C-alpha cells in the first residue's frame, strides 16, 4: 500500500475530481490518495464519486478553506 498526494487547490469543479480520477486509475487496490482542494463543492462531489466508483472515503475535513479528503482505492 502506498500513499499518493493530489494538490487540487485553486481548481474548480470538475478539476479536483478529474485529478483524483487520474490518480486512482494509476493506483493499486489498497492505496490511499490524499486530495486537497479549495473548491468547497468538492466535499459533496468526492463522497458521490466514491459511492459511484466503489472507492472508500476514509476521512474528509476542512481547515482554513482547504478540503482534505483521504480515499482508499478499492
Provide a concise account of the structure shown:
The chain is α+β, with helices and mostly antiparallel strands and 74 residues long. The protein has helices spanning 15-25, 42-53; strands spanning 3-8, 32-37, 56-63, 66-72.
Primary descriptors:
2 helices; 36% strand; 4-stranded mixed sheet; alpha+beta
In CATH, the homologous superfamily goes by the name: TusA-like domain
Radius of gyration, in angstroms, nearest whole number? 11 Å
Low-pLDDT sequence parts: none
Please give the largest β-sheet. 4 strands, mixed
Percentage of residues in DSSP E strands: 35-45%
* CATH class membership: Alpha Beta
Outline type: globular
Strand order of the largest sheet: 1-2-4-3
User: Can you tell me the CATH architecture?
Assistant: 2-Layer Sandwich
